[in-house]
Amino acid sequence: MSLFIGIDCGTQGTKGIILDRETGETLATARASHSLISGLPAGHSEQNPSDWTEALEKVLDGLLAQVERALVRGIGISGQQHGFVPLDANGKVIRPAKLWNDTSTAEECAILTKKLGGDKAVLRKTGLRFLPGFTAPKILWLKRHEPKNFKRLAHVLLPHDYLNWYLTGNYVMEYGDASGTALLDVRKRVWSKEAVRAIDPGLEKMLPNLIEAHQPAGRITPAIAERFGLSPDVLVSAGGGDNMMGAIGTGNVEPGIVSASFGTSGTIYACSKTPVVDPDGEIAAFCDSTGNWLPLLCTMNVTTATEMMRGLLGRDLRQYDEDVLKTPPGADGLVLLPYFEGERTPSVPNGTGNLFGLSRRTFTPGHFLRAAMEGATLGMNYGLLRLRALGIKPKEIRVTGGGMKTPVWRQIAADVFGVSVVAMKEDEGAALGGALQAAWCVDRSAGLRTSLRDLTRRYVAVDEATRCKPNKAAVAVYKKLQAVQDDLSVTLRPVFERRAK
């Protein structure tokens, strides 16, 4: 019997599972919460990395209390992408980590883009535009705003790399998460010297060694082995960003399968055997954590929109669904532009939320609640349509996240996307992906030729009872509504910019 631990360190908490390799059963689950640092200026989003290690310890203690510890063979870590964890030469955290949803670096993005010759030149040289959420502008922000801290900087890590370092003592990074820094040439899978030097000539030596997805970050340290009662031979796999691990955990390791996560933010991504670089830069040309590529769109406002509307109108989840079902698809033309936190895809960092189509008929709780679900989904579909234009052909969309627990929203998603939508039997896709990558890593380290595709086909399963197929009439309604929301977004962008000045 061999057990593998998968850990997912997200924005709101850390979750973990233990997978039994022989049966495919999830033997244990555990979670611990952590929160954002409060009181920061608008646009800033930060966490203390010590909160992650404390949560990791709690989760590991909770998991290991339910199984025989000697049977654990490997650990795989998933972490929120793009976060900047600055360490000094002794491995001490210099300042709190700036997170994926920190939008305070718009000026740094403009500086880096100009240094590399403009947006088109950046796409040629790296494959991704410099966006406020990415890691590269966060590093330049540190240099410009906290020069004393920048002088101490010796190691640049991402959140999952930091947890790998905590477990192994090694500074490494795999290609999937590295591509989300905007410092990697995603086509060649090497650090982009031009992007790195645009920040600082000395930055290259601060970046960790790049490793392949099947390679281990290392073995756990003796101190970690003693602390948790584990064998010192336990391997920690390369790990990856939450989207990369979520792709593994949903079986999205071959073309045709598309994954979508409906959480605080929303992501849709697909596996590609070749780089998919969007000439407009709206789709992120990431690498994945399997050795392939992961073209991805990210929107920043999904359950944010529905939870804000639910709180405003005082509905519990059951009442929310009942109100939505009483309202026709399209909410009689009421459209929500859900840019409550600005927006990343499309890139509208200064955007705000807007309701369009208010009338006596649409001024009801049901219309508002349905418009929130539809608006968030149409926002994600904007990116899916772009993926289709770049050659991605979804056969089905496998969904995860809190938003997809309700059949009402799953049906809306199927109607907006125009393809079948199905949830997973194991909803913690990123944690499952970590466990499967760890099993793959252990096999490859032992000289076995195990395929990750074979592992996902055996251990990843959809829940057919949740499948929703598109309704032709609703698909037609949402096609028209999509055009309205897209036009509204474009029309209001100059207004957003004037408001921000």
List the helices and strands and how they pair.
Elements: E1 3-9, E2 13-20, E3 26-33, E4 46-47, H1 49-64, E5 72-79, E6 85-87, E7 97-98, H2 106-115, H3 119-125, H4 135-145, H5 147-152, E8 155-157, H6 159-168, E9 172-174, H7 175-179, E10 184-185, E11 190-191, H8 193-199, E12 209-211, E13 216-219, H9 222-228, E14 235-237, E15 240-241, H10 242-249, E16 257-262, E17 266-270, E18 284-287, E19 293-299, H11 303-313, H12 317-325, E20 335-338, E21 353-356, H13 365-389, E22 396-400, H14 407-417, E23 421-423, H15 429-445, H16 452-459, H17 472-500
Helix pairs in contact: 1-6, 2-4, 10-15, 11-13, 12-13, 13-14, 13-17, 14-17
Can you describe what's shown?
- The protein is an alpha/beta fold and 501 residues long.
- It has 2 domains: 3-245 and 428-459, ATPase, nucleotide binding domain (Nucleotidyltransferase, domain 5), CATH 3.30.420; 251-423 and 471-501, Nucleotidyltransferase, domain 5, CATH 3.30.420.40.
- It is 39% helix and 20% strand.
- It contains 17 helices and 23 strands.
- Strands 1, 2, 3, 5, 13, 14 and 15 form a 7-stranded mixed sheet that branches. A 6-stranded mixed sheet has the order 18-19-17-16-22-23, with helices on both faces.
- Helix 1 (49-64) packs across helix 6 (159-168), helix 11 (303-313) runs antiparallel to helix 13 (365-389) and helix 14 (407-417) crosses helix 17 (472-500).
- It is globular.
- The model has no long low-confidence stretch (mean pLDDT 95).
